[in-house]
Amino acid sequence: MPKRLLIANRGEIAIRIARTAADMGVGTVAVYAEDDAASLHVRVADEAVALGRTGVPAYLDIEGVIAAARSAGCDAIHPGYGFLSENADFARACEAAGLTFVGPRPESLRLFGDKAAARALAESCGIPLLSGISRPVSLAEAQAFLASLGKGGAVMLKAVAGGGGRGMRPVTDAAELPQAFERAASEAQTAFGSGDLYVEELMPRARHLEVQILGDGAGGIVHLWDRECSLQRQRQKVIEIAPAFGLPESLRQEMLAAAVALGEAASYRGLGTIEFLVDARPGAPPRFAFIEANARLQVEHTVTEMVLGLDLVELQLRIADGARLADLGLADGAPAPQGAAIQARVNLETMTADGGSRPSGGVLAAYDPPSGPGVRVDGYGYAGYATSARYDSLLAKVITHGRDLAAAAARARRALSEFKIAGAKTNIGFLQALLASDALPAGTLHTRYVEEHAETLLAAEEDRARYFEPAGGAVRKAGAKIDLVDPLAVLSVKPGEGGVAVAPEAAAPREAAQGPAGTVPVLTPLQGLVLSLAVSPGDTVRAGQPVAVMEALKMEHVIASDVSGIVRAVTLEAGDTVFEDTPILFVEPGEVEGD
Questions:
Q1: What is the dihedral of CA 216, 220, 224, 230, to 10 degrees?
Q2: Residue 507 has pLDDT above 80, yes or no
Q3: For 106-134, what is each residue's pLDDT tens digit?
Q4: What DSSP character marks residue 176?
Q5: Which one, of 593, 591, 589, lies nearest residue 516 by Cα?
Q6: Cα(78)–Cα(18) distance, rounded to whole angstroms?
Q7: pTM (two decimals)
Q8: Peptide bond into 243 cis (omega under 30)
Q9: Which helix or strand (DSSP H or E) is residue 304 part of?
Q10: pLDDT tens for residues 382-406?
């Protein structure tokens, strides 16, 4: 067993790993970017080492992370999820440095990290697939494949090196394919370092299910049952459930067997997740299809733990130490699930009527998570924490367990109503509405449910708060003023008002930009990074014309002007990171040719 474990991650997953390591008597070392020194994982670990860089690149710096492990006397590294967790070069570099990588072998990471190669392996195992092309494709090849599906055909573009909903675009209209291809490739390049895409048929109405597997690297593979992951926004999960429900038992057993077969074919070691789509069209014969494999700990591992009574991080550490399935008491398979568990992802975001989301941010004036029987919260917030636009919007995960799905859902709604977060907008009300909707019956559940019902869900958002506000009114929201030169130095909060000191360089923030007389602003609809601008002062624009591209939640968003006229000022530039409702440019309204 490792004596000292470096956790190459941040936020809630770093905290979750540190807790299990502490329970096992393993010392822990956290790492942090220069702009992330106030993240709670830094304090939860036994020691913390600065990476000497800022933002996501700090956590992707293989040499920097390994140097931190060596300097702290570590003998093992746990990558968590995201960042370097599925990077075969990182796993190999750990081995070369004499450090145990708590995860799959580099060969498995390389295989499953190439989504097209994983698809080809599944095909060789006789596992059902959607029709598609199991290699990187050009735009012309994607167009030809869409045309081959005939009238009404649709495709899903996917990043070869992707995962987590990034670098993915559904396309139902051939005219939309070029722009979707460009956006997906750009997202994939930014997120994974490769813009390669592959293409497969889009199942028109599907459930997204996954099977947790565990391999000991010596031929032993076992499934740890399944999870329901269909409730998504922008192809990223917001609610997960274990076990999957409303399935014909024969279909479940076939899916579990397929996941184990794929693990055996890859001689898999460690935790992995095999993902499938199940046809959800009313009256359709039961069928499933493999979509991808994720060679890491999943965000939603918590619900599997709740229904099985297992600690999946402990299993990872013991497998990395050489344990076999028999040593773990799993030689004859996993225990049967007990009851049902639900995980709700509390994100720093607000939802929109089209099923999209707008990232939010600020200084947390309050962070009081719920508790009680059957309630678990994995998070990293605290009162006074200044959130960052540079990292994922996930702030906490509320996980509940009940005797059945209805009991777990009721407990989740109650727990969410007790979760007090002030200073930044969250999706808690939306999650409550979703849990109270008709989404959960198997007959209505599918991956586009949130998108199709977003407007109704927004109208049904629950605002019942099972906690007190301070006397004299609601908790003060953290003020944010945008400095267009340094958009990260945005928070102007006086000491004593939320307990947050202002960085020296942000002591005198500028007021939000004002446009020339007679102009109206085009505002950023979300918090994020400005990738590109398509117009300059003097250009004419039409209402609905794209004027900028922003990245938020690791996905790209095209921003359109909501007014026609002449551009008189552009206030941002590529590389700026800004909060919601920041002026991008100012337009003098008027009719333009084409209106």
A1: 90
A2: no
A3: 999 999 998 889 999 999 999 999 988 88
A4: G
A5: 589
A6: 10
A7: 0.80
A8: yes
A9: helix 301-308
A10: 999 999 888 999 999 999 999 999 9
CA quadruple 466, 470, 472, 477: dihedral, nearest 10: -90
Distance CA 78, CA 69 (A): 11
For 54, residues 6+ apart whose C-beta sits below 8 A from its C-beta are 33, 34, 35, 390
Question: In Å, what is the CA distance from 287 to each residue of 149, 254, 275, 283, 290?
Answer: 19, 10, 14, 12, 11
d(CA 352, CA 344) in angstroms, rounded, equals 18
First to last CA, the chain: 69
Write down the H helix ranges in 24-138.
Answer: 41-44, 56-59, 62-71, 88-96, 106-113, 115-124
Reading the block at residue 511, the tokens are: 């007021």
Average pLDDT score over residue span 407-423 = 96
Positive or negative, the CA dihedral 445, 450, 455, 457 is: positive
Residues with Cβ within 8 Å of residue 73, at least 6 apart in sequence? 4
In 348-492, DSSP assigns E strands to 349-351, 357-359, 366-368, 375-379, 394-402, 420-422
* Residue 113 vs residues 84, 117, 119, 321, 458: alpha-carbon distances, Å: 11, 8, 11, 24, 36
d(CA 435, CA 450): 11
Phi, psi of 267 (to 5 degrees): 45, 50
Which residues are 343's β-sheet partners?
240, 399
C-alpha 334/C-alpha 576 separation (Å) is 49
The dihedral of CA 537, 539, 542, 544: what is its sign? negative
Rounded distance between C-alpha atoms, residue 349 and residue 121, angstroms? 38
Evaluate whether 238 touches 342 at the Cβ level (below 8 Å): no
Of 399, 397, 362, 358, the closest CA to residue 383 belongs to 362
pLDDT for 308-348, tens place per residue?
A: 999 999 999 999 999 999 999 999 999 999 999 999 999 99
Calpha distance 234→356 (Å, rounded):
6
